[in-house]
Predict the structure.
Amino acid sequence: MNWELLWKCLLIFTLVGYSLLVIIVIFGGARNIVDMLRDLTKPPDQN
Amino acid sequence: MDVFATNFQTIDWVIVCVYICIPVVIGIIVKKYIRQLSDFIVAGRSLKLFIAIATLTGTELGLVTVMYNSELGFKHGLSAFHVGIIETFCILAIGLTGFIVYKLRQLRVMTIPEFYEMRFGRNVRIVGGIILALGGILNMGLFLQAGARFMMGVTGYSNPAGLKLFMSAMLIMVLVYTVLGGMVSVVLNDFMQFVVLSIGMLIGSLFAISKVGWENLFKAPATVDSASWFNPISEGSGFGSLYVIFMVILTFSAGALWQSGTLRALSAKSPKVAKQLYAWSSVSYLARRVIPMLWGICAFIFISQSPKLLAAFQGPDALNSQFGMPVFIAKVLPSGFLGLIAAGMFAAFMSTHDSYLLSWSSVITQDIVAPLKKDKLSDKSRLLITRICIVAIGMFLLIWGLWFEAPVSLWNYMAVTGTIYLAGAFTVVTAGLYWKKASKTGAKIALYAGLLAILGIGPWTTGENVPFYLSDKFIGVMTFAIAFLGMIIGSLIFPDKTKQGEAAR
């Protein structure tokens, strides 16, 4: 088994994949926070 | 080159001090959103997908995570990456199938032992709660110590007395904002920490790689055996086949049932979001392993190029291997950026603490104190008990972190202490959800079996020529096996007489 090639591919995949995830979560998460705080200020029976 | 030489300057201190005050301010601001216990513990079950990913990553990517993974990379080289691959596939499998987490979210439980009661009765819940709290609190026992070592390495401040002061101050800040804001405060801080730390780690990785060189990264240093640097199955790597098996069982069970992570799934807006959360987060689980390991590997290559630095990590008075990564980044990251990384790490330290403190204190309140009390506890009393527990656990951590030295690596200590809870919990929840014949006697045997894992942190697990049956990995695997067999045999010999827990299946 070519361990060197496996670890090279893993490292590249991690750095690229995680960069993309971070960008997606920053924008999506900010919107979600606004929604969460709005939900929490509703009267309990509407939650 | 001096071991503790650092690029950390006054401007870095300023960045750190300003940054770590932010969570406390957020805790004070969001206190007004906390009206009932479910707001405090599961943020009113209002988490949508992306904020749930951020908060799950924020919790599971703490300073201690960075420390134990970088230590693995520093000690074992590229072969350490196998733990990342295993964990990622396990998390992805949970996300794609919804195994355990989908059903638990459907049942609207707030803690794992709450499920024990639904399925197996109150006594099992109390036993499970005690073992969960014991394993969980022991598991976080070395967080402060690891955090302090990071600070020493990065700031170059090596006075032990000052270090204890730092640890105490950081702990007090965590206690303040967790006690005030509960899960809402934790979620907002996790998000901020996710953003800063993720960007910092990605940029930091580029610095680390550029310092040692991309091609050098994939060449074993002259001081280590080439095969064991790459191959985790090689016994010389310090891992071996049994360790790999232990990691598969451990990371799968921890992925599904580690209380602080599962709490995020239970806080999700719907069972479907809980499932999606795991599928998406498999990438961040990979990153939380591979990136710190990369830093540890770069640190070892860098240190092995300098005889003076290498000497500091060898011999009878060698520095603990946890110092490798912080000592390295203190020398290669520029001032300013180093302050930002340190601030992100401190925030990560606080973010992990807040979630774990909240997890274990809510288990003590919900699963031990409340079931033992005959009168129904009001939400107000539960909140008060949870807050008292947070402070009490914090005090324990300070004392344990100051005097206990783990005989094994930080990750192996955490794996073994995690097994105390996970061996029983994974067996009990899986059988409870998917096996009709699972009985309360079988559940109790499985939970008690988890206590065997304590043997894995004893002094007999280290030293030269430790027999395989005394190694932490063997004890870990056997604990899971005994818990599993205990559940099956106990359930078949002592089946339940009543049809309790029908709804929980």
User: Anything to note?
Assistant: Chain B touches chain A through 44 residues (CB under 8 Å). The CA atoms of residues 15 and 340 of chain B lie 6 Å apart. The mean pLDDT of chain B is 85.
